[in-house]
Specification:
mainly beta; 140 residues; 8-stranded mixed β-sheet; 37% strand; 3-stranded antiparallel β-sheet; glutathione-dependent formaldehyde- activating enzyme (gfa); 5% helix
């Protein structure tokens, strides 16, 4: 795995980060929380080991919101609002990075759709052959 390096950041350029190990998986989340957070039908996330994530700049402008009732913290640029990542508030090694926050292809294609029971009616999920899970893929 040596040599892997992908950089990324926010829209305004304040926040810059590097990931030094490939994602363990990439997937689409169709939950209503992701829909409202992104303003889109789904969020595409790369699951990474948070110990391989390092901020290069903008730490003071990375704001994290912890949803009431639990769930991962949602981190974004406080200046431009760009979504950067999510992290387990109790274990920052458990993390995901928004695919669009990377400057280039992270090298791991999406492999599932989860929370499809909540998929937006106005944007059908494409017939891409990926497994679909009504709830979390871990609830199977």
């Amino acid at each position: 795995m040596g040599g892997y390096r992908r950089e990324g950041g926010c829209l305004c350029g304040t926040i810059r980060f590097v990931v030094t190990a490939p994602p363990t998986e990439v997937g689409y989340c169709h939950c209503t929380r992701c829909q409202r957070r992104t303003g889109t039908a789904a969020s595409v996330n790369a699951t990474i080991d948070g110990r391989e994530f390092r901020l290069l700049s903008g730490a003071e402008d990375l704001s994290c919101w912890r949803p009431p009732g639990g769930g991962a913290e949602k981190c974004f640029c406080a200046r431009c609002g760009s979504q950067i990542c999510s992290q387990d508030p109790d274990d920052h090694s458990r993390m995901s990075v928004r695919l669009a926050a990377f400057d280039q292809d992270p090298g791991v294609p999406p492999s599932y759709h989860q929370y499809v029971a909540y998929a937006a009616a106005w944007e059908p999920i494409p017939d891409d052959g990926l497994p679909r899970f009504p709830e979390s893929r871990f609830d199977v």
